[in-house]
Amino acid sequence: MDTFELDREIAHLAVLQRTELIDPKLRKIRKLFGRYLFSNFFSKYFINIKKVSKNYFDIMQIEYNSIEKFMKPNQNILCIGAGIGGLEIIVNQQFLNNKFHFIERNFISKKVRYGWDTKNSEAYNDLKLLEKFLILNHLKKNNFKIINFDLDELPKNKYNLVTSLYSLDFHYDFEIYKNYLKNVSTEDTFIIFDTIRPDYFNKIFKSIEILKTENDTVHRSKRLACRGFII
Ligand SMILES: C[S@@+](CC[C@H](N)C(=O)[O-])C[C@H]1O[C@@H](n2cnc3c(N)ncnc32)[C@H](O)[C@@H]1O
């Protein structure tokens, strides 16, 4: 497998979730017509689905490589803000019997903006399409559960691994999830996320490993693997 199965609606979400998928032509269109028309029309109808699928797969493969050492079979994995879940599809191809819980949101902001959002009012997902993408790409229905952050009670399991790429503490404050994550993790749980303020976590976790430093302007951040809450 070197690409994903997806349709136009799912490709549209991928483009909103990953700005790297916006090609120069589409970027010009965004400048000309503004964010509203871009988010709702051009990013859906002016894309090449096959190209988006291949490029999204390649990006997710690189992301997978950066966290591969934390992957093994039979893990309970909590995915916060996974988007359409390309990373989890790759994990599922590589290792047997992982169970995935996705906490995501079920709306698309009218004018998608990127960057820090104190109120956490931005989202770009559709939970029906997330489920469709996972099934189309061979993640079995009994190996995953989707939780709506705004409506559902968050699950009370203990997780081996938590992943949140370019979501938790990249777009919104880690504090929103801090107490919850304390309750669902053990001393051995790794929590992997991208942050624009890595030093902030020195007082929160006993162990922090920097997995990646991104200097690109859109994604400027560090990817951390943290373990053991201090506070
Ligand atoms: C930039 S996208 C990243 C998606 C994916 N992790 C990736 O690397 O392609 C950020 C995602 O976080 C989701 N999100 C926003 N607020 C959230 C929250 N409070 N809990 C879970 N997900 C959230 C958005 O809907 C969006 O899918």
Description:
- With 231 residues, this protein is of the alpha/beta class.
- The chain has a domain at 69-229: 3-Layer(aba) Sandwich (Rossmann fold), CATH 3.40.50.
- It contains six helices and seven strands, in the order H-H-H-E-H-E-H-E-E-H-E-E-E.
- The chain has a seven-stranded mixed β-sheet with strand order 3-2-1-4-5-7-6, covered by helices on one side.
- Strand 6 and strand 7 (221-229) form a beta hairpin.
- Helix 1 (8-17) crosses helix 2 (24-45), helix 1 (8-17) packs across helix 3 and helix 3 (49-67) crosses helix 4.
- It is globular, with a radius of gyration of 17 Å.
- The structure holds S-adenosylmethionine.
- S-adenosylmethionine is lined by residues 17-18, 80-83, 103-105, 120, 123-125, 149, 165-167, 171-172.
Question: How would the blueprint of this fold be written?
Answer:
Elements: H1 8-17, H2 24-45, H3 49-67, E1 76-80, H4 86-94, E2 99-104, H5 127-136, E3 144-148, E4 161-164, H6 175-184, E5 190-195, E6 205-214, E7 221-229
Parallel strand pairs: 1-2, 1-4, 2-3, 4-5
Antiparallel strand pairs: 5-7, 6-7
What is the approximate shape? globular
Q: Please identify, by name, the CATH architecture of one domain.
A: 3-Layer(aba) Sandwich
Which residues form runs of ≥5 with pLDDT under 50? none
User: What is the overall pLDDT average?
Assistant: 94
Q: What is the CATH superfamily of one domain?
A: Vaccinia Virus protein VP39
Overall radius of gyration: 17 Å
Question: How many β strands by DSSP?
Answer: 7
Structural class: alpha/beta
Helix content: 25-40%
Defining key terms:
single chain, 231 residues, alpha/beta, Rossmann fold, 7-stranded mixed β-sheet, globular, binds S-adenosylmethionine
